[in-house]
């Protein structure tokens, strides 16, 4: 059976076809707008009310499911090229209009908050149907890109016995009695009696394990859920989110930047080509949403312009040290318009600084690199100190318009002695990451990788401004419903 | 830079090329077997020892990384079509032979147990390189198949506030003080003070959430990690494994079987075509392993024959009731050869029964369907009782040679009242799954889906007999290392 996305591309024909879907609207006892989830567009099914029993007509309600038979004709009305001249309507499943009225299925504009509370139904709305189709297209594009480039997906573990990675607060996973856990003689919880015979947590990143696989398979990537137990109730944070982490043997930082830029352009281009209707709809939605906002909070440009802005520009590569100079001498800094004034070399950059660089100064996506060692993770490759004795690491962040940092990566420290010293200095326990260190003994080549929070990418491409609206069932502090 | 998989397919040429990889062996100061993870096959790099400094020659050790330059010539030796006439060798990273000797990188046969203990290194061996490449190919094939069929991946949640699904024991996820959790007035752990303000667990299945997405997008699938906190220390169970769960609106059980059969054949065929060298190697490995085993424990047929057996046969569809009759009257049952004799209608089938049906009776893959309602989950579609008043549900299991059940699925109960009653009868708390039930009010159409444990598929295609050997870092009772 053909789905509606395909039917809407077909030519008028006298051949009878059967279509199944859900009713989005039913006007004048004559026009059924039918949707089956394959596209944002509905198939208009035109019926002659006098040919159908009254109980059938009365059951063609919003959210009910029907099967229709008919043949495709050129549409008489505007808004669609073809429509279904419908000879038969069969009710597959009803929906009580009184019940529907209480839900987000009712045909009116609903607040995003309300939609979140009915996350089991919201995918049946135009906005969430479009977002989730774009999400799925981006997800496939990720796999397709890496496949074409000769990468292997490595399914790194979700449960980890190490809490040493330092990327954020972790969730503890246990099967011990939650109220009266067994204790050791010293009075601590005795994790040797737990399921894994040690304390276990949910992973914050698959990178360290992915590195071990890059040393075997050469080019690998992860694409799986990661977790942060941080009490951040913001529109940009989730406790559970999906992350993409490629890792490549023999790549230095410059090759890592090349890979990241090529990858980002590929997946965005894929979505634009394969989800044109959905993205057009989402652009309109964003424009409507922006009308309610203060000028300063609006998107810097229309959705598709923003996506094209990334595709058509080379990403400008700028060292952290240069960026600090630019920011220090920038108008908003001198006029004290930044919330966080830029003064000292060594400080971390804020979103306002990143956006200034992208949107005002360079007017293109920016890759910042060679960050101060003190503000970055232990596993990043240490550079030689500069003339002023300042220590940097081969880190890179990609900055995008409207969003700031979207990708973070680095060349990894491949030298056994240097890594051992850094782990010691930064209090990373060797007994937990012995394997990560040991790997540096056996043909430990230069290698690099990066991480992309998948939901950030989906936000960027869909124009949704709250991260809870780009994942089916968001997990945030106080929320694990569904 | 070309990778070795590609170079081995190339024609001899005078053009100089550069290759990087790890040394697998170095014979007679002349032949370097170089591997970069892109293929199981090594590139033979032939050097003239007199052209290279002694310290270079001494550093070309197993597991060291080198860059070589040279041009491709027809191979003089047997075993490869082309080899690299090498003019330059650069040591990129060393490996101390004394250290290598202590690891599974040393060039001899290692026990699978030992390899598991060095899971950070085992991917650099022939067997695990092959297994993990096949795993990655199967993973991509899953996405490719569903993409081509118009499915959308739905990223269902890993953390769930519901523990009602009944598919198995769950892991608790918490950020409460593990030793002194806050208590309610009744003296219970006060989960309202936990991160999610309720008790949270790791998911055992994304099916219920996937069903909600099928009602919006029509055809969806999940592919993500799932968890079982069961103390099963067997070669077939993991605490953390990846699951694939398609869910399709309007599909009845027969359509579900069609989908599952088509899908299984597609992904196996994809692996055979895209991993021919790896699978050939793994077939040989299995043959060697089987030589150590008693006849009864050996694989029923060589690896590739077994895969072709699945591809070329139609899956035989047999009702549970028929299967019980066949088993009851079978020779091994009459001769009491089954460990679990088959007697009563209503009993669950064991692996020995499933394998008898596939390997002896039908000699083809089998789909059993319409199981007794009492041994299956609450969400399965209830059939009309049969003439003898026996109640069955529209469940199906796919049985494969050597392994038994590999896929389990069902048509789902779409009727609100019937589902509500079943939830009540089977003690499924409505307050946790209100959304699952409520979905049945709004155009609740016939729909079906199935689940495939991804590691079971990888075992089947690679011939590995312990599930710990088909995932990078296995999680089992007492083991969350790495």
From TrEMBL, chains A, B:
<keyword id="KW-0648">Protein biosynthesis</keyword>
<keyword id="KW-0547">Nucleotide-binding</keyword>
<dbReference type="InterPro" id="IPR004364">
    <property type="entry name" value="Aa-tRNA-synt_II"/>
</dbReference>
<feature type="coiled-coil region">
    <location>
        <begin position="272"/>
        <end position="299"/>
    </location>
</feature>
<keyword id="KW-0436">Ligase</keyword>
<keyword id="KW-0030">Aminoacyl-tRNA synthetase</keyword>
<comment type="similarity">
    <text>Belongs to the class-II aminoacyl-tRNA synthetase family.</text>
</comment>
<dbReference type="GO" id="GO:0003676">
    <property type="term" value="F:nucleic acid binding"/>
</dbReference>
<comment type="subunit">
    <text>Homodimer.</text>
</comment>
<protein>
    <recommendedName>
        <fullName>Asparagine--tRNA ligase</fullName>
        <ecNumber>6.1.1.22</ecNumber>
    </recommendedName>
</protein>
<dbReference type="Pfam" id="PF01336">
    <property type="entry name" value="tRNA_anti-codon"/>
</dbReference>
<dbReference type="InterPro" id="IPR012340">
    <property type="entry name" value="NA-bd_OB-fold"/>
</dbReference>
<dbReference type="Pfam" id="PF00152">
    <property type="entry name" value="tRNA-synt_2"/>
</dbReference>
<dbReference type="InterPro" id="IPR004522">
    <property type="entry name" value="Asn-tRNA-ligase"/>
</dbReference>
<dbReference type="GO" id="GO:0005737">
    <property type="term" value="C:cytoplasm"/>
</dbReference>
<dbReference type="InterPro" id="IPR045864">
    <property type="entry name" value="aa-tRNA-synth_II/BPL/LPL"/>
</dbReference>
<dbReference type="InterPro" id="IPR004365">
    <property type="entry name" value="NA-bd_OB_tRNA"/>
</dbReference>
<dbReference type="GO" id="GO:0005524">
    <property type="term" value="F:ATP binding"/>
</dbReference>
<keyword id="KW-0067">ATP-binding</keyword>
<dbReference type="InterPro" id="IPR002312">
    <property type="entry name" value="Asp/Asn-tRNA-synth_IIb"/>
</dbReference>
<feature type="domain" description="Aminoacyl-transfer RNA synthetases class-II family profile">
    <location>
        <begin position="132"/>
        <end position="472"/>
    </location>
</feature>
<dbReference type="GO" id="GO:0004816">
    <property type="term" value="F:asparagine-tRNA ligase activity"/>
</dbReference>
<keyword id="KW-0175">Coiled coil</keyword>
<dbReference type="InterPro" id="IPR006195">
    <property type="entry name" value="aa-tRNA-synth_II"/>
</dbReference>
<dbReference type="GO" id="GO:0006421">
    <property type="term" value="P:asparaginyl-tRNA aminoacylation"/>
</dbReference>
<keyword id="KW-0963">Cytoplasm</keyword>
């Amino acid at each position: 059976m053909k789905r509606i996305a395909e039917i809407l591309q077909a030519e008028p024909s006298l051949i009878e076809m059967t279509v199944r879907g859900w009713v989005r609207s039913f006007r004048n006892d004559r026009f059924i707008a039918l949707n089956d989830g394959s596209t944002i567009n509905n198939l208009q099914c035109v019926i002659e009310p006098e040919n159908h029993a009254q109980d059938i007509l009365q059951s063609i309600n919003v959210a009910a499911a029907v099967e229709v038979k008919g043949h495709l004709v050129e549409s008489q009305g505007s808004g669609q090229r073809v429509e279904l001249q419908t000879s038969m309507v069969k009710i597959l499943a009803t929906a009580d209009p009184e019940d529907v009225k209480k839900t987000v299925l009712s045909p009116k504009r609903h607040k995003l908050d309300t939609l979140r509370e009915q996350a089991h139904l919201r995918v049946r709305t135009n906005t969430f149907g479009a977002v989730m189709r774009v999400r799925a297209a981006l997800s496939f594009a990720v796999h397709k890109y890496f496949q074409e480039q000769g990468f292997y997906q490595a399914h790194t573990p979700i449960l980890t016995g190490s809490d040493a990675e330092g990327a954020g607060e972790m969730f503890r996973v246990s099967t011990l009695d939650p109220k009266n856990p067994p204790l050791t003689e010293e009075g601590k919880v005795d994790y040797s009696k737990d399921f894994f015979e040690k304390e276990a947590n949910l992973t914050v990143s698959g990178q360290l394990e992915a590195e071990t696989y890059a040393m075997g398979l050469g080019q690998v990537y992860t694409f799986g859920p990661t977790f942060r137990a941080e009490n951040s109730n913001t529109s940009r944070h989730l406790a559970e989110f999906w992350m993409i982490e490629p890792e490549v043997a023999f790549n230095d930082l410059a090759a890592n930047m090349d890979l990241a830029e090529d990858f980002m352009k590929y997946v965005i281009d894929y979505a634009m080509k394969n989800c044109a209707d959905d993205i057009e709809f989402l652009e309109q939605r964003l424009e409507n949403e922006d009308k309610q906002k203060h000028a300063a909070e609006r998107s810097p440009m229309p959705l598709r312009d923003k996506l094209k802005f990334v595709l058509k520009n080379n990403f400008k590569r700028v060292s952290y040290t240069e960026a600090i100079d630019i920011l220090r001498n920038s108008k908003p800094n001198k006029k004290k318009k930044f919330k966080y004034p830029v003064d000292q070399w060594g400080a971390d950059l804020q979103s306002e600084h990143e956006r200034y660089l992208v949107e005002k100064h360079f007017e293109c996506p920016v890759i910042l690199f060679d960050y101060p060692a003190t503000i970055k993770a232990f596993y990043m490759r240490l550079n030689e100190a500069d003339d002023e004795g300042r220590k940097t690491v081969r880190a890179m962040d990609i900055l995008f318009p409207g969003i700031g940092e979207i990708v973070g990566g680095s060349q990894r420290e491949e030298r056994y002695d240097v890594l051992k010293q850094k782990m010691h200095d930064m209090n990373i326990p060797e007994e937990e990451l012995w394997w990560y260190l040991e790997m540096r003994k056996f043909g430990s080549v230069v290698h690099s990788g990066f991480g992309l929070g998948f939901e950030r990418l989906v936000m960027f491409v869909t124009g949704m401004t709250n991260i809870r609206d780009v994942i089916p069932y968001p997990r945030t502090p106080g929320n694990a419903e569904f």
